[in-house]
Amino acid sequence: MLPIVAIVGRPNVGKSSLLNLLAGRRISIVDPTAGVTRDRVSTPVTVGERSFDLTDTGGYGIIDKDDLTTDIERQIQLAIDEAQLILFTVDAQTGPVPLDIKVADYLRGRNKNVLLVANKADSSKHVNALGEFFKLGFGEPIPISCTTRQNKDALLQAIVSRLDFAAAAASDLDAPEMKIAVVGKRNAGKSTLINTLAGAPRVIVSEVPGTTRDSVDVRFIREGRSFLIIDTAGIRKKAKITRDDLEFYSFHRAQRSIRRADVVFMLVDATLEMGDVDQKIAAYIASEFRPCIVVINKWDLVGERATAEQYAEYLAKLLPTLDYAPLTFISAANNTNVDDTIKLAQLMHQQNTTRLPTSQLNVAVEDILRLRGPSSPTAQKVKVYYATQIEIQPPTIVLFVNNPDLITEEYRRIFIRQLRERLPFSEVPIRLHVRSHHRSFDAPAAP
């Protein structure tokens, strides 16, 4: 295991800004609203040849408006228990306040290695006033400014000097075999699925809509293989989201998670009707050419109201943009069919990374042309010369013809469906480019 460093402190001291600064990219949502971070948000950080996991936590002592205070403090406690080092973060501009003292007392009771960090030390005036924080009992604070990036390197060096890297394996930073994003509308059971796969209460599970705000990366192991699964915020109707709304950031992080993923789990609540939000999520996944499994959760609650075949027919009508996506029926809460869904995701990732020799591809193309060649909307005859695969993830195929303008969108869809039936891309999206070429059909030799 990589050493774990947890950022802990009262609300609004800039813990999420600190994580983003040290990680070198925007990971946690940063907003003036107190209590934005609820779950543990983690990312690996590398300093020279050393690496550690950095974890952002919710504000200690927050009175959560959705009555999730106990859940947030449980996540803080779990982060502290796992951590080798705590970055006790305070606000250099306000000086120590009673809640800082309460956090200090709590940390002393946990018997952890603590490094005091005074954030928002944006000027020499703030740095000169840091002596007030000695009363917290953790020595001299390290001043840091997330705004000006002042003292970032000094803080990183201080962190590394206090960590024990002896137990860290060389493989701990290896890329996971596959990244899976779990997306869906609110309360579909995404966080429950994440915790089931992690085998631990990694994220907060609640009936309160919108509990998850950040996109949370969680590593888990299945049969000796490492996976990264991304919990995302539940999506609601975009018309209801404004730029000043916290869900604006959550929504865009969910979209980014889809783009990052090797495979997307689109989670659907089997007990509710499908709606516009589900269709918009499906359309976005399709537009990004992401392999997708439509995961029907809470199937154990459906009973005799519908069979799997009936539900599949229902979805096919409502999600035409994901006609290539397989379905699985699970209960995340009961861990039913979850492992089989992961195995299916592995097969789809394999399809998505397959590269075919040109000769094999053109055997399929010739077969499709014999079955149904393209018809022209004009009197000009369509000539198809050959095809070649130029990319993977997604499989990207170039079809060379005499005039690309003669290939209709309808025929593109037919051609892609026929390719799926003949090639090992049956459950993943295929990107098709049609380009002009002026010679008779002569498929090049396989590379």
Explain briefly what this protein structure is:
This protein is α/β, with parallel strands linked by helices and 447 residues long. The chain has helices at residues 15-23, 69-82, 98-110, 124-128, 152-161, 190-198, 246-260, 276-287, 308-318, 338-352, 358-371, 409-422; strands at residues 4-8, 41-47, 50-56, 85-91, 113-119, 142-143, 178-183, 216-222, 225-231, 263-269, 292-297, 327-329, 384-391, 396-401, 431-436. The protein is built from 12 helices and 15 strands.
Please supply descriptive tags for the structure shown above.
447 residues; alpha/beta; Rossmann fold; GMP Synthetase, Chain A, domain 3; 3 domains; six-stranded mixed β-sheet; 12 helices; 15 strands
Overview of the structural elements:
By secondary structure, the protein is α/β, with parallel strands linked by helices. The protein folds into three domains: 4-171, P-loop containing nucleotide triphosphate hydrolases (Rossmann fold, 3-Layer(aba) Sandwich), CATH 3.40.50; 175-352, Rossmann fold; 358-436, K homology (KH) domain (GMP Synthetase, Chain A, domain 3, 2-Layer Sandwich). The chain has helices at 15-23, 69-82, 98-110, 124-128, 152-161, 190-198, 246-260, 276-287, 308-318, 338-352, 358-371, 409-422; strands spanning 4-8, 41-47, 50-56, 85-91, 113-119, 142-143, 178-183, 216-222, 225-231, 263-269, 292-297, 327-329, 384-391, 396-401, 431-436. The strands form three sheets. A six-stranded mixed sheet has the order 2-3-1-4-5-6, with helices on both faces. Residues 440-447 have low confidence and may be disordered.
